[in-house]
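Worked problem 6 (solution included).
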Amino acid sequence: MMTCRRRFVIPLFSLTLLEEACGDISFAARLLRKSPVFAISAIFSLALGIGANTAVFGLLNALTFRPLPVEAPQRLVRIGSLENNGMTMPVPGPVLDALRKEPLLQGVCGFNAGDAIVEIDGRSSALATHSLTGDCYQTLGVHPAIGRLIAPADDIPNGPEVAVLGYEFWETKFAGNPNVLGRTIRISGTPFRIIGVTEPRFKGLLWGYPPSVSAPISQRTAPSGKDPSGRFYWAETLARLKPGVTQRELQVHLKVKWRRLLDKAFPPSFQGANREELLGMPPVVTPGATGIDYYFRDHFQRSLVALLAVSALVLLVSCFNVANLLLARGLQRKREIAIRLAMGAPRWRIIRQLLSESALLIAGGLVGAFGFAILGIKLVVNAFTSAYSDISFDAQIDWRVLLFAVVAATLAVIVFGILPAWQTSDVDSAAALKSASRSLIGGTARSRRLLLSGQVAMTLVILIAANVFAESLRYLRDNALHFDSDSVLNAQLMPLPGGDLVGKKAVAYFRNLIDRIKDCPGVNAVSLASFAPLVSVPYKEDIRRLDNPGHVALQAPAEFVTSDFLRIMNVPLLQGRGFGMAETLNAPRVAIVSESVAKRLFGDDNAIGQHIQFGTEPETRDVQIVGIASDARLEDPHLRDEGFILLDLWQLPRMGNWGNLQIGFSGQSTSIAEALRKKIKEAGHQEIFLLRSMSDLRAMSLLEERLLAATGRIYGVLALALAAVGLFGLLTFFVSRRESEIAIRVALGAERRDIGLLVIRETLFLLGVGVLAGLLVSYAATRTVSALLYGVSAMPIGPVMLSLVILSAVAAAAALGPIYRASSIDPNIALRHE
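Solution. The predicted structure is:
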């Protein structure tokens, strides 16, 4: 019996195409080896353009697009209540129990992220921690590296006090010793037993702050006045959708029952306006694949998108430059191509061979691009970590970045490869073999002019963008902050275990601490505030006049400070009085408002003595205005609204437990810092979590603008260099193409000045067309980004004029060589050669 076997045969035409492609690549490689200067110039230009884009996208990917390293992150959503200021509020613990029963959900994870004092082997330090619900790891699909993770049985009131270590912290602190299981550590003074270590890939749920230690949320919930049992807590909530369920379906489903869920969740102590406001907040469901972020995405995402747009222009300039190089190279190969066409080679075959050369250049450019991208990412990450010392910025190159680089390279081939290949292959073989007629290169000259004018236009756009970024930085640094902070230190405080103080004990402790710090040599003034100036994220409250409590007049941030705060921050008090030591805990609440807040609340009426309310807490339902200060951006300097409200911290002293000390000093900051640490340590209730000068905080708050300005300058220099090379090459080509004409002009008595004018006219034409196109594109671009930048109009005259001057100077420098060559032509030699 005969059996038939299926045979797989590679078609002959496929082998032929493969052989031809290999032959094209081999031939292109030999040609590039013979022209190393051309090859290096083209590869370097492409490496810069692709590398700049890859670096910026790598940062944007790490900040925005990279999902949590958990199972099916695309099905994770964040659930919360939507506040009036647009922020997402955490969910009460009892609501989490109700969400676990929802038919649309497959799991729920509640967590809180923050810093805590952790004691290990008798040594305490402030560490990033997570407080997690018992089903959190199960919902996320996170597995242990050793031991076990927190389970639902651990997350019960008065349950086992267990802790899980982060993998990186375990390797760093315990050298990866598996015997760590069973050891006891203290979190905020409470002993916890280590039961496991998370897998290496899991970096936590809060972007940039991987937890060193995690514990059950029930064991980390402290009793409060509103809930003495300690069983009620608020938690950020991530939930996993069931397959086939959409985010919108869950939003609609929860909207129907959200108020009822909240009403059941709140303990009886939640009454009055506070309860009604919370019940009136609608549910909000947003994507949770990338975890939670409170600061960095809002501050840096738009800047990175703007940088990516400028990087795309740099790549375009690089492509124009390489296309010009290829067109110039094509002129040298006209005769070779004409011979191949005369021998019967089809034009598409010539184009394919020329595109193979472009593909090799792209391959070399990609290799260099990854080198530039890694270097650029490292520099930016170092800038981040130097400004935010406690942040973990993992910006590794993953498949998304690789795909982006390949797409950018493919687009580059399309931009710079096809036109030169088409132009170079467009040869009249008979004319080319007869002579080197100048008419043969007219089309190429027009193409090169078009490319160079486009390069000039894109370079102008990049220069204007760079100068606009620098103008925004200068405006914020010099004008927007409205206060001088060069001789001020800010100490961020953290309470030691059991160090939280309230009431009269807190007043006595903080007043004594401030007096002891004032006694240090060189200290001029000390204040205590509930926030860190310039870098705190402002939380805007609804502000109402007490005589019209139903109407929200405005939203403004409200913070607690002591008497010397305005003096240290150099913010003038325009009317009324400041805070004094006379206010007591039970005295009527007083506030200082900024000038714009007073104006918006009371118009032309005198605001001093008027009463306002904000929020729903009892402490802020009736506050009397005793002073009006000048407007200033005390928190985020990017806020366009400079209004604020300051309350007396002595009337709510518990706000100082996690507060910030501002120390005005003269002399050396080093000695002041040492004395400050000593005084706080001796006081025994707190330690300094972070100590920075106010100048450092200012630089940190302007990191976004500094990044834009520095990168813009680098891009501007690169674009100018590429434009200068392209302009020099085209003008040199222009002179060589018209050597015979110039020789005849000289023979007929033309002066050198007249010959130089030929080159100058060509330069002005190219520059004029490019500048006109660049100004039109810049106008549209600046109108778009002016809403994102500060102190910059839709078309800022200063940056535009500066960019035109710089571009003109570079163009003039690039034209000097061709002008000299044109005016130095010997007519006898030129005509004899012709």
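Discussion: Residues 1-10, 429-433, 435-443 have pLDDT under 50 and may be disordered.
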